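Record type: monomer structure entry
Structure origin: computed from sequence
Chain ID: A
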Amino acid sequence: MTPQWNSVGEVMTHAVVAVGRGATFREILDALRQWKVSAVPVLAGDGRVVGVVSEADLLTTQDREPERAEAFTANQVMSEPAVTVHAQSPTAEAARAMARGHLKRLPVVDEEGFLVGIVSRGDLLKIHLRTDEDLAGQVRLELLAALHPTLAAAVEVRAEEGRITLAGTLPDTSTPAVLESLVRAVPGVVDVDVRAVAPA
C-alpha cells in the first residue's frame, strides 16, 4: 500500500541512536560521528526522553570549559526539556516545531514519553517526493470523503509535479473553495487549480 505520509509516524526513522544521562562527552561525540547525526536524544533509566545533546551543545561546553569539557556527561550538557513530537502528530506540526526551535531533528515519543523514533528535516521532505499518481490517488480519496460518491466521480483529478487540477461539475457554487482548502491540506500538494464549476 502506498504511504500517505500524513503523520510523523509514517515518515520517521525507527532505528534511533540515543544515550543515557551518564554518557560521557567522548561517548556522545563518538556516537554522533559513528552514526553521522547532529544530535542524539538523552534517555532516563526507564527509556523516557529527558533531553537532547547536539553538536552545538558539545561545542558550547568545549568553548566554555576547554580544560574540563571531556569530564562532562550528557546530563550536564543536554538541552532540556527535549522538544518532542508524537508519532500520530501531523507532519506539519513537526515542521513548525523544528522551524520555531531551529532544530534539524526531533525525537518521536509515545503517549508515555518513551522514544519510538526520530524525525528529521529530510524525513519531512519525503512528502514532496511522492509521485503524481500517488497524490492524485489520495486527492480522489479525500473527494470521496467530502462528497457523495456520484458527485466525486464527476470531478476529474489531474496531478503534474505536485500541482493538482480539479475539473468537472460540482453540486453548488460554494464547493470549489471548500475543495481547494481540502486538497491543499494533502501532504505533497504544491498548488491547486479548481476548474470544476457548479451547474447553471
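Annotation 1: The mean pLDDT is 88.
Annotation 2: The chain has nine helices and nine strands.
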